[in-house]
Amino acid sequence: MAAKRFVLGNNVSWANHGSDDSLDGKCGIKVVARGDLAHSDTVAKIPKSIVLSKRTSQLPIDSLNSNIAWDDVMELTLVLAFETLVGEKSKWFGYLQSLPSEQVPVAALWEGNDDSDSQTAFLWIQGTETEKVINPFGFSRSISQNIFKYFNEVASPILATLGYQTSILNFRRAWSLVSSRSFRVDTYHGLAMVPIADAFNHTTENQVHMETDFDVCPVCGALQSCPHDEEDEAPLGPGPTENAPPPLEDTCDMVINAPVQAGDEVFNTYDANLPNSVLLARYGFIIEGNEFDYIGWEPASLPHNLQICTTARWDELARVWTSDLLDRTSLVCDPTELSATLSSHASSDTHGGNAPRTPQYKLNSDGLVSVDLWVLAAVCALKATDASCLDTVLRSRLEQLAAIQVHVENGELTNPSTPQVLQLRLVANLIQDMCRSRLLGMYKPELSVAECGNLLDDLPDDMFCSRLAICQALSERATLSACIDGWHSLVGCVDELGFSKDVVLMDSLGLGFEAEASGSVKWSPPLFFALTAKGNEM
Q1: Which residues of the chain have pLDDT under 70?
Q2: Closest CA to 341 of 352, 356, 332
Q3: 3-state per-residue secondary structure call for 417-456
Q4: HSE-CB for 168 with a 13 A CA cutoff
Q5: 3-class SS of residue 19
Q6: ∠ Cα 498 503 505 (to 5°)
Q7: CA atoms within 13 A on the CB side of 528
Q8: Phi and psi (nearest 5°) for 224?
Q9: What's the pLDDT score for residue 384?
């Protein structure tokens, strides 16, 4: 195959007991073990000199210096498009021939595609987490729109000055390849296409991973000392050249981290802890039962009346949910389950420093609410029922409310006149209404989970993108429904204690939520709360 010929001619060390690549449908290849592979086996050593990056491409690097800041995915897309146009004159011609000839079905590009499959799929991700990935909150343009803008304002003019031209369709294909196959190699190359490494398909339980020396000279890429080292640094190693150690191998190594039997496919992981929303948007596939899935609400997107219930004391207030309480609840999840962040693969985002923690208003894949979301709902309930509730006593009140909830869940509450039980009912109503509003913002909200499943079963096999989109929407609907059902059951437990079902509000959704046409949530605050327990007025 073209890829194999390319790597064999470029000093790639490919283990004899390693693996072979073979065709895997229209979107690329897969890697299969020729023999049994053990932990720590190195199946390939890929010289960094053959990775395709802005540092190694024939495209003049000055061409990438734009007055407008663009992410490195877009820049590498231009590099890939240029090398493709160069054809057989490109150093990477054999490798480029091995890449999929069609656009990878990443959800980020469905919006701009003309085929009915993409257009239908784009409708189905409305109101889902995938929609937020391809249209990041606070951005005026979607990823697809940004690609058009970059192509027209930067890529096309640069290619024209070099005597080349390409179509937007070809450029979008190049973007899909970079999005789904690139790796962050080191501080010199940055984001790059890595032959062989990108031939392994993805799974969460991978057997191989890429190892590379990341900290190299950002100016020349040297792994050892170089003229760009700071002048005041002490020299590394012995001074005389004849006594210097041999140069280190600067390679990207594919190393086995779990045993593989001969004949089995060998899987890599593109990134750890990625939810399906990101996998679908950037890579064009999803994983059934992905434990890293979540549904979230950004702080700035919350209705104003919920935003005023937020507090700067999140870390302190979140600690009201002790490990003991978390072990005994089936409605609130351990915050460590939702602490995973996106790493550097095909992403230019970096985080660091001492920035304050952003609250995680999320549901996990099982429909359990995050501690932060619970705190938000609980603070709202406390302030709605007791306007005199001071911040100085807020933590103690929340501790009591969390304990009451666990007692109710486990049938341990013996005092049905406890005021916190009514506040707990408000927490349950608020969380259910947030979930219902999210459901109303999705495509065809009138369809039940079962009806969506039937629609998926009847979908033609060639509607590949639509199938992915409906699967993702179906998964999120099921998660939201599970959350609603869980808190509805809690309300039922409260009712069994003898409390009235009546929580008199000024609107039909319990705490004033309405779903707008855009899918966002609008909160119309009630003028008063009338909470009545049987035989008691609060």
Answers
A1: 1-4, 7, 11, 14-28, 65-69, 137-139, 230-248, 304-305, 307-312, 338-357, 387-391, 416-418, 499-538
A2: 352
A3: CCHHHHHHHHHHHHHHHHHHHHHHCCCCCCCCHHHHHHHH
A4: 15
A5: strand
A6: 175
A7: 3
A8: -105, -170
A9: 77
Answer whether 174's CB lies under 8 Å from 79's CB: no
Q: Quick one: pLDDT at residue 316?
A: 85
Q: Which CATH number fits domain 1-51+207-234+243-271: 1.10.10, 2.170.270, 2.30.30, 2.60.120?
A: 2.170.270
Q: What is the pLDDT of residue 335?
A: 76
Amino acid type, 41: D
pLDDT of residue 46: 92
The two three-digit tokens of residue 309, written as one number: 């219930």
Buried b (16+ CB within 10 A) or exposed e, 41-77: bbbbbbbbebbbbbbbbebeeebbeeeeebbbbbbbb
Outline which parts of the chain fall under CATH 2.170.270: 1-51+207-234+243-271
What does the alpha-carbon distance between residue 144 and residue 111 come to, in Å, rounded to a whole number? 7
Enumerate residues 6+ apart whose C-beta is below 8 A from 537.
Answer: none
Reported as a single tens digit per residue, the pLDDT across 29-59 is 788 888 899 999 999 899 999 999 999 999 9
Q: Angle at Cα 315 formed by Cα 332 and Cα 321, nearest 5°?
A: 30
Express each pLDDT in 100-149 by its tens digit: 999 999 999 999 999 999 999 999 999 999 999 998 755 678 999 999 99
pTM of the predicted model as reported, rounded to 2 decimal places: 0.85
Phi-psi region of 7 (alpha: psi -120 to 50; beta: other; left: phi over 0): alpha
Instruction: Say what the pLDDT of residue 509 is.
Output: 33
- The Cα–Cα gap between 210 and 221 comes to 18
Distance between CA 284 and CA 261 in Å, rounded? 28
- Lookup: tokens for 71: 């992410």
Instruction: Give me the pLDDT at residue 494, please.
Output: 86
DSSP 65-111: --SS---HHHHHHHHHHHHHHHGGGSTTHHHHHHS-SS----GGGGG
CA atoms within 13 A on the CB side of 419: 9
Contact 294, 129 (CB under 8 A): yes
What angle (nearest 5°) sits at the alpha carbon of residue 93, between those of residues 89 and 97? 145
What value does the CA radius of gyration of the chain take, rounded to a whole number of Å? Answer: 27
**Token digits of residue 17:** 């007991």
With beta carbons less than 8 A apart as the criterion, state whether 328 and 409 touch.
Answer: yes
Is residue 224 within 8 Å of 216, Cβ to Cβ?
no
How many whole angstroms separate alpha carbon 519 and alpha carbon 127? 6
List the one residue out of 245, 392, 247 whose CA is nearest residue 317.
392
The span from the first CA to the last CA of the chain, in angstroms, equals 77
In this structure, which amino acid lies at residue 499? F
Q: How far is CA 401 from CA 380, 408, 513, in A?
A: 13, 10, 23
Place of tokens 């663009």: 70
Q: Are 37 and 209 in contact (CB under 8 A)?
A: no
